[in-house]
Amino acid sequence: MKVLVIGGGGREHAIVWKLSQSKSVDKIYCCPGNAGIADIAECIDVNQDDFRSLLDFVKYEWIDLTIVGPEAPLSKGIVDLFEKEGRRILGPTKAAARLESSKVFSKDLMRSHGIPTADYRVFTSYLHAEEYVKFKGAPIVLKADGLAAGKGVFVAASVDEAMDALRQIMKDRVFGEAGDRVLIEDCLRGEEASFMAFTDGQTIVPMVSSQDHKRIFDNDQGPNTGGMGAYSPAPVITEELQAVVMERVMKQTIRALKSEGITYKGILYAGLMIDKGKPYVLEFNCRFGDPETQPVLSRLESDLMEVAMAVTDEKLSEIRVEWKKDPSVCVVLSSEGYPGKYRKGDAITGIDAANRLEGVHVFHAGTAFKDTDTVTSGGRVLGVTATGSTIAAARKRAYEAVEKIHFRGMHYRKDIADRALQRESEK
Ligand code: AMP
Ligand code: GLY
Q: From the CB of 289, is ligand 2 less than 6 Å away?
């Protein structure tokens, strides 16, 4: 069978890599892909936002399945178009993707269906929002309503910081229309974890748990990024807690959407805060997480193509999804300046040497070719991922592999999975 993967980051490299191991996959295309994906898939030069051209390509090449990596095409309705034309595609429809594309929609759904989340108010008026912040005090969380590439969330430690965030969102409009409405939430405490599941709208199959590292610097300092590293499993998600999350969050969300006339198919991702053993939803994403997918798919024993087809064909209850026991750790290498304006075009060395180490796989994110060199072309450049018999062993391998890789201005966090390590040593 032939597959098209949409996207060109570390998440998509992990998806393509896993698909390439499937017995039933003969050919993989990726749009736009990157230098690493180009080793195992044919990267195509079609505008990712031009759904008609993508559809034409899928028809012309007789592609059996399209998998959508990022949220933007989903929120713009790529699935609706492909399904209308009878094409198999993995991901939710535009209406279902609102779970991620509108924070207000998602919070209102949670509130009206008893899904645990932080208390909140929604404002369209700057003055009323300002009054509310003064009334509530700090710490407090402010969020622009629409998609803001992960940057529309401010966890304000003081009222001044909150006022500044409010100005940026509502007055300066740094996120454009996403700032029409602002959500002001109570600040939750605890430990974060990512919980992803496959769902065909009826059956929900959890993936192994994972944990992201959102801030750019060690010890969770500095601005938020797309994610600087991840590991799986997240020890904070115990077996009992997984059962609670499945019931109270995942199943309840699918049911809640159904009661509003929306069938959700694809990947459902809940960003959770675990406080005193109880889960609260911080956000939903309608797609695989990045970088969580790199360690999570590294642990998938089953054939990803088989799972993806079971989702699109609504036969998820008929298959078993198996995972490997060994933990996995991914360390992201980023460009100088990221998450602000960053350097591009620097030659990268040592990827092959890193890949030769046992249990290591280097996923490409922002990479491209320049002549015969592989060069940096994005903020997050590589996701150095390793598996091992313990989190400690996987982490050690990942950092050994990082040592082999060089590019000018390379940055990475040195504390990925430290928290899990602490828990592992306490056992
Ligand atoms: P979101 O995009 O909504 O997940 O927010 C990004 C990050 O902001 C989360 O991963 C948390 O670290 C933090 N965050 C969001 N909402 C809250 C909240 N209500 N309380 C504390 N931290 C939050
Ligand atoms: N790593 C967080 C996300 O994919 O949104």
A: yes
